[in-house]
Amino acid sequence: MVSVGVIGYGYWGPNLVRNFQESGVARVTAVSDLSQGRLDLVRGRYPTIMTTPDHAALITRPDVDAVAIATPVGTHYDLALSALRAGKHVFVEKPLTQTAEQSRRLIDEAERRGLILMVDHTFIYTGAVRKIKALVDAGDLGEIYYYDSERVNLGLFQPDVNVIWDLAVHDLAIMGFIFTEQPVAVSATGIGHVPGKPANVAYLTLYFDRPMIAHINVNWLSPVKLRRTLIGGSRRMVVYDDLEPSEKIKIYDKGIELSNGKPRGESELERVYETLIGYRSGDMHAPKLDGTEALRREVLHFVDCIRQGARPESGGEAGLAVVTILEAATRSMDARGAPVELP
Amino acid sequence: MVSVGVIGYGYWGPNLVRNFQESGVARVTAVSDLSQGRLDLVRGRYPTIMTTPDHAALITRPDVDAVAIATPVGTHYDLALSALRAGKHVFVEKPLTQTAEQSRRLIDEAERRGLILMVDHTFIYTGAVRKIKALVDAGDLGEIYYYDSERVNLGLFQPDVNVIWDLAVHDLAIMGFIFTEQPVAVSATGIGHVPGKPANVAYLTLYFDRPMIAHINVNWLSPVKLRRTLIGGSRRMVVYDDLEPSEKIKIYDKGIELSNGKPRGESELERVYETLIGYRSGDMHAPKLDGTEALRREVLHFVDCIRQGARPESGGEAGLAVVTILEAATRSMDARGAPVELP
Amino acid sequence: MVSVGVIGYGYWGPNLVRNFQESGVARVTAVSDLSQGRLDLVRGRYPTIMTTPDHAALITRPDVDAVAIATPVGTHYDLALSALRAGKHVFVEKPLTQTAEQSRRLIDEAERRGLILMVDHTFIYTGAVRKIKALVDAGDLGEIYYYDSERVNLGLFQPDVNVIWDLAVHDLAIMGFIFTEQPVAVSATGIGHVPGKPANVAYLTLYFDRPMIAHINVNWLSPVKLRRTLIGGSRRMVVYDDLEPSEKIKIYDKGIELSNGKPRGESELERVYETLIGYRSGDMHAPKLDGTEALRREVLHFVDCIRQGARPESGGEAGLAVVTILEAATRSMDARGAPVELP
Amino acid sequence: MVSVGVIGYGYWGPNLVRNFQESGVARVTAVSDLSQGRLDLVRGRYPTIMTTPDHAALITRPDVDAVAIATPVGTHYDLALSALRAGKHVFVEKPLTQTAEQSRRLIDEAERRGLILMVDHTFIYTGAVRKIKALVDAGDLGEIYYYDSERVNLGLFQPDVNVIWDLAVHDLAIMGFIFTEQPVAVSATGIGHVPGKPANVAYLTLYFDRPMIAHINVNWLSPVKLRRTLIGGSRRMVVYDDLEPSEKIKIYDKGIELSNGKPRGESELERVYETLIGYRSGDMHAPKLDGTEALRREVLHFVDCIRQGARPESGGEAGLAVVTILEAATRSMDARGAPVELP
Fold first, then answer.
1. Which of D319, D318, D337 is nearest to D329 (CA)?
2. Which pLDDT value is given to residue B195?
């Protein structure tokens, strides 16, 4: 049994506590939160868990092997660093930190101490995303042409980060997981409608070193909730709708077929009718997906990495890659979409 | 009866001929097309219409009052100019011309000769868009926060224009019609997947002089067809789905309520929980829409303008405004999303 | 070229005329209708077609090889009989006649004269239904457990037949086509809401000689339009939604697995937890369908049968089978769902 | 605080326990279940709740004020009777009992002892159904024409009751709540596909003393899950889709308008074109619904009735009315849909 201390029992913390408790391989020893009401809630549900308003006390408890951090992003770095320095393995909510520099320092600290540093890129542990990765890896989609995602809903406005840091982070994590190519530049645009608050509507485009593009549409001010990703490949195309109860992934045997053609006319008017592009439209297939709760799979993986000393699928480097793009996107957004090169 | 000559009987021409014929206020006298097969089709359907491969002959016929042009965009300027010079009223497929300069010249020519110049911005004549305009004009949506549109499908790749000129043009026409604000800058990104052909996936952001943003996602290489526009306002929000058979417009009484709040804590951790944003979620309403075919309403309007000497709702100036943005968007796309100011 | 005379140019007649004209193997020589306005419409669209208010004159024209009847069902028998007696092949709208006895007489007349008698069971010529038949024939669905169909919409109330004769007829035709089993009894219930008019809401259950059931829900007074059929089999299940633009058929690899089990408890309370039924949930598959217009395929088949002297897929016998069930269903409906045996 | 003992911790029991615990007005003192594994689960989640395999012991505990029964229907009567005789208020899962006679005895027993007997007709406590009742009560739908419901999914086959007792019971409870009319006869058809097990596909029609009909389609062997009810009225019509995340109820301003007309022709053929029915199609409206969990509202109501000695909205009489129809429907099903009169 790995003993876990959880910092933060707000929106996501309860899911962490429940999944660690029910994992069979870990148990939650202590939970800290600044709100007494939240701690009361913990005690009502889990009378055996120690609660404290003092996260520093939790971090230094000798009976805590690992610390899970589910607090606002502005606090991730300090809390994670303290935990690593106290010799604890660390599991951090996405995004890993506020700056790439902070992520790099955490990676170094964990490396130096031989501790596991893992970021909670939940989506890469879903049956849907793992299926997409399998399709990409097997070449079933062919060459990837584009990744186009839409994550919009009403709320929850966050006071300290813009909507890209809250929602686009999911797509960046998914892309880092399923694609081998790294983006080379990013262009982002966006706007805020609450004075003094960060952007709540934003659009982000990622460029690659070949004819592939990624685009992410995020919005906290939409009347409807949408979670829809299109992935276009030369062989097949995928529609991934996370709100579908059962058929989250649909694989379309559709695409274009290029062929050589000759201009069929002399005049300008006639030539424009010529086309060398044929359309292919075949079956659609919705594979059955593994329905295991993503966070359960993730928690088991975290414990496994601790035991084996293995590298997590969403380790510090994955977190750093995402934060690097988020930083660049914010710079581009400040310059109305002017492209920013990525390292 | 206004007598109309139609140039081009490809994809859209048949709709023009049918609507002019059934309008009750106009009749089609002649149709020209470079393809003999298309002309045979016209004669089979309408034995009384004269057909010719020679558009110049059609334009100069004395029994033709107005010329409707449904050919590739590269030919619009020359054909429209010839028709105006021959003293004919002109109805041109969208987009009006390939360059803003060409649009300006057509406007001048029509003005000088007292002729009607109208561009076929079909969507502004739909019951759906007219309802949205009525909502905006009445202040029912409040202050507009964003316009976010998605027009994706498989095909039809066009050889001479990129996907923005084919699909985003609809949204630019709609925005020009329903909003009084003009965009001040545009940022566009995109990519092509067929060597030597223009971009088939593109994203366009429009900036305004106040906290309002517009975004358009267009794609010829999508496995599914989507035509969905979100319009967010301070009072209400609209979802416009043109593929819905009956409820194309849904009006949501949803939004955010801003209120003054005080930081509830001393420490950084506690303050981040504070929020001054409330969410309002009320009824949804789908108004019954006028189901008249848009092109029928448009054709009647064109004839009306000819008779009254009135200014069309989609006259040359509207066409110019759209082409101006399209030109700027193409420049931004070439610069990976760097913003381009609009005049 | 088979020369066709069409009687009735109301709701469906225009589709018949268009498809015969564009078939390449037939042409429409004459159209009759009691309304002068409808005949004017024909002449406007097809100047070469002779029109007449006198169907008897049309039937006896020597230049007419076949007669297509698209009039209210109450007139089918007389018109078809006249046409057969005049030596014409006959194509009749569904349902074939008002009574089974009438259908039998038409079959005899056609048989005696060596003429083709075909009923317009349009749906069996759709790509969707033909795909379902192929699945059933190949055993892909396994043993059929049920057929459950819903056809509801607002209007069009018919004055002379109840909603079963208008809408359920489609399902009866489809079932006759895809299943080899014949129903042995029918139970129907329904109600009318317009005084003096036939039932506009009705439900029909068909029994078979093995554990299979069919159910049809038809309604002219629904706020929404639905066309949805579930077909449950022991190996796979199908959802057929005719309103889906592209994926009309979805094949689910789902079902139950029966296994032997032992009661696990002594008491009554414990035994009820025991179950021998397992659930299987696999992939979903939406095959690409042949998109040929059903009526085009049907018209070509009719001409083919005339030329080859072949038996139509929807010949008189198929029409008789459907009318036999409709008659029995109406009797059951009058007896509030009391079952009526089928011959 | 009302002290509650819960019998049965299978599928539904956990929801009862959670809602009583979080109600603020009741607490669960004891839980009994025949499975030791289920009791372990209770103790893991709620260390303070006493668990026992012996329901008789639970019933007689002096510190138990009320007993909630979430066991298979075959056991409801004996358990409820024991509890009432022990002086406890009783809350029973739907359906109340296996026979109307049993329900009557429970009602008498509760009456005699002045105890609350309530059946868990969960749906009548949802925001959606309460909104529909408000619309019906206010006359917004006009005269009710039909109620048409579909509840289909894959599983969970129940060994002791047919699918009507499991799923149609919801609709019977809803109808009893929202309509003032009582059905006068029922016709039901159905079939089972597992040898020795009750029907898993069934259809039920209810007749009323005026032109109103109700129909319920239930199926445990459907590849897709549907929960959809149409309610047609003379003024408005409602679509209630319980699987919609936010717009569960849509109110359509649609219907028919009857007017006097005269036959417009002499011949039989012409008269059939005549119609006296007009169609009205107006706006659609989706009201915001109260999102309180139904079971929470229900549990609060149960406690309230205990305290006030009030009559529950789903008391014994409501349970009896439902069971009476279920019994009659089962008889009709055995007679292939022959109608059975209701008392």
1. D337
2. 83
